[in-house]
Input
Amino acid sequence: MTITPEFEAQIDEVITHYPVSKRSASLPLLHLFQEKFGFISDEAIAWIANKLELQPINILELVTFYPMFRRSPAGQTHIRVCRTLSCAMGGSYELRDKIANACGIDIEKWKANFAGRETGDEEHTHSTDLEQHHVHNAGHGNPIAVSADGKYSIEFVECLASCGTAPVAMVNDNFYERVDPDKPDRIAEILESRESDATKPKIRPPHPKEKRVVFANIDREGWSNDIETYLLYGGYQELKKALTMPRTEIVDEVKKSGLRGRGGAGFSCGMKWGFIKPDEKKPVYLICNADESEPGTFKDRYIIHQDPHQLLEGMIISCYAVNARLAYIYIRGEFPEGAQILEKALAQARAKGFLGKNILGSGFDCEIYVHRGAGAYICGEETGLIESLEGKRAYPRIKPPYFPAVLGLYQSPTIVNNVETLCDIKHIVKMGGVEYAKLGKPNNTGTRILCVSGDVTRPGYYELEVGAVTMGELINDICGGLKPGRKLKAVIPGGSSAKVLKAGEKYKLKEKQADGLMAEREITLEDIPMDFDSLAACGSMAGSGGVIVMDDSRDMVETLNNINEFYAHESCGQCTPCREGSLWMKKITDRMIAGGGVERDPAVLKSVADNIAGRTICAFGEACSWPTQSFVAKFKEEFDNYAKKPVPPPMPPEYNPDELIAKEKIETVPGARNGGVMAPAATK
Amino acid sequence: MVNVQIDGVWMQFPKGTRMIEACTQAGKFIPRYCYHPKLSSPGNCRMCLIEMGMPKMGPDRKPVLGADGKPEIAWIPRPQISCAQDIAEGMGIRTSSPMVEDCRKGVMEFLLINHPLDCPICDQAGECRLQEFSVEYGNAQSRFLDQKVKKPKNVELGPRVTLDAERCVLCSRCIRFMKEVANDDVLGFVDRGSFSTIACHPDRQLDSNYSLNTVDICPVGALTSSDFRFKMRVWFLKETKSIDVNDGLGCNITIGSRENIIYRITPRENNDVNSCWMPDSHRLNFKYLHNERRFLGPQIKTGSSLAPVEWPVAINRAAEQLKKYALTSSLAMIASARMTNEELFLVGRLAKALGIQKFDVLPRVGEADGILIPADRNSNTSGAKLLGLTGERPGARLPEIAEGVRTGAIKALLCFEDATRCGISETDLAKLESIVTMDILPNKTTALASVVLASSGFAEKRGSLININGRLQRLNRAISAPGEARDDWEILRDLIQAVSGSNGIYMIEDVFKQMAEEVSAFAGLSLSKIGDLGVQLLSGDGKAAERLDADQPVAKTPTA
Output
């Protein structure tokens, strides 16, 4: 490992992005090393630790936490195939196998390694056979299989946030959508990896029912992500306006707008900003949460790729409003192109005086830096994100006392907002809070970008006034309905952690009538208005706006298993219930679909989920247990069908899961299941 | 004081009390794994979940009072951890509601599904939090049918600590201890989710002199002491509260012994001395007590070699020899700043009876480590000063004594240290007409001695010591001395008796009593009044400290 002066200069420049704590540069440095050397060696870990005045374990902790980092080399061309729900429904398992075949990688052996990793089974993990096939474990990250010639390597990763174009894959840093596993030419094309689909211009007119505000320029003809284009269409005018307004007035406008956070929790943005004291003595930070990773959600990707200046303008206005002089965009590691686009946009904005010292002569200084994550879903949780930005494992913090608005980044007041939320700020300044609040419904104001994926004819993103359409209109009209001959089975309405809604269910919705009285009406799944309160009233949530539609061809146990695998993989492991429970639920559904389900499995699944929800440090506990709770309750018959074997006796003969799967019939030992009373024969 | 309702009863606690501590003080112990009062609170084990509520606020923003005149409590529907939050006025806590019990059962089950359940061969068995809480919150049968996560076992994290990662509950106490207390950020988590494992970077190891404290605070059997591992079931250990004698701080310790053999020494909490910690070097320094070369009884020189004799013979021989040089300048004495106050007091008496003019102690100075180990490696320099066995500069008179031995001006030596470590060469020592020494193991001085009085090690005797900060602390007997070896004070008492007649001392308590009559700093105290946590006797500058009446019960301090 040779560190050239140029490389070290690059490193030193990155470190300047973190004036408060050098430790924050850990992740960026690891990215630089992996880009340069292909993997992170122990030597590199020691070098980085030394550079940042840390202990080597501090860096090793990160390399083994963030799945994107590898401790051994991958192939020259590294392929990531998305494994998560929408892509799996679109055929990503098949795609993985086909790509592996095309690359000369033995997929069966690779899968065995997967199994070995789960159980730590030495036979699997240390098999010389596997070593010959260059299959190795790369820390926590997904096992990576490298072809014998070292040219290709493949990794089956969690959500790449493009569920509407499933199945998707990344080849090195290039991104490919709708990779049909049945088209060998397409696979050959992506393996050559000439041009990324992400940078190809797309032109798609909005659906007539859409109300494009944040997405006004997405897929628009003649639009580019360049600052000149942005300025041509009135860009940065709102920033100019905002800088003439008193800070408190902007906060008031945001309060009046009724804007609720678009990240998932739907918390009032104005209230969040209001937690920052106007006379705050400590520095205030603003962080844009661009760690879009809730399966089913893929809106931020397009804002970042196609309209980055809108986000920057929203951010600079927000920084001004809360008096933050330093802001970071925490962008997920799987968006390397997005990070570059943002870097370029930031440079352009800086050059034009929209960013930096004394912005537009207002006396307000503000700097924004891009910070790349490295493949950990938990960084979407705001305190986990803050820890990650501080250069640590993304362990969410306990609240109290660590409310970000009080003790956030570097123990200072910090505002963390979603990409879409920050874009909305620009429009609130433009329209005024009161005017903005006229969009949508009371307490559910504005527009939302709904991301629809799964079994619909036209999956994709649709910006709609909140509550303006119902689930039925969204699926059947806007998204072109289900595939021919299929019936609706279920919908996950707000990202994979939202509770599933079952077709044919009836919900009671309380609504304010014209006369001001509340009236209750019974509605079906198709009638649910797509807003925060209605979806909550129906027992689920609007969440991140990721709508995953499932038709009657889907097996609900397999679907839940896919979701469970995601959450088991993404649990940070900090607190007990989620760490142990998420993997346990996955093991149960794994065994069920392999044919080893026992009678009590559905009940155990529910009870495990119940023991997680509400008892963890962060909302991941709910995120991983709500799917199980709702799937098991609503599709009981399907789960019972998978769970027909008797519970094996606790006394000998003991069963291991493999035997449970293989055995047709499980014998029981009467004595063992009878409170220890010996069978009469034994007394003789 | 803050008013808090715990399980329906209103109580008062000082401001700043943690909820978990308030509950403990109220007699409602809350199970916990990750919480440790001396470390930061990550709130990760979720075992201490309780139901919490705050006063219900009326429209006037004032608490709504119930029929009993106390605030009504609005209970938070979600369970809350009690380890990270301080109590607040009007707070309500339920420590045993159905929801709380359910939470604990859930967490226990989660912690055990991937646990190897190898209690029969686990060193932690008997003092394991998993075992303890299983009694109340465990399931009789496992619902877990699947393969457990496999993790590294028998990992040498460092020279003294062994890790079994499968037993680990990932509470992070050890990581936090190394970072926050030992100032050696060497431990961390690698991997993620259920696969998370404690580890060091491959180039580093857990080799801090405080590494064994991680074993003490590990609530389960994940970290075990490589020294104690597989040696003894902890429930067979007799626990004796005593103090460490390896330096001037005197860490409070618990000696674990069985049938006269010490198996381990662990730190005992004393917030005025060592908090909950102690150095590895000190806790492992007990094996010399079981050295097979220990003196098993007194010996006298017969011809050119030492031969065992009965105690009266040895005492008489020693007295005879010392009396020969009494009241002359040819007799010198080297006392030890490692002796107890009682021993030093008697040594002082003996010196007076024999009219010894030249005496001092051997100073031992090392480098202070900035954590617990001070520069003074003698356990009772303060006592030696207070009782007049040395001056302001311990060891200042040793060169004079060494010179006297060299020139022949000194003909006899009463020695409680190895004289060769006090600047006296072996050759000079050999020139002396008489050497009376008292020790537990052979050394160069005992080899040349006329009389060797076999005494007791720190775990074999009682007595008191004054630490560098002027705190009077108590040694207790955990095991008995080997063979005919006797308590040091008894030997000295007999020697004084043989030199100058009866002295009215029958028990060690009598020594203390006489000492308290003569030395004002000890006035009003007795060995029993010192208590397990000691008494502040002197202020930092050696003056008598203002002390609380020693009769008052010692303040209760929370334990982990």
About this structure: Residues 548-560 of chain B have pLDDT under 50 and may be disordered. Chain B touches chain A through 53 residues (CB under 8 Å). Chain B has three domains: 2-106, 148-290, 299-536.
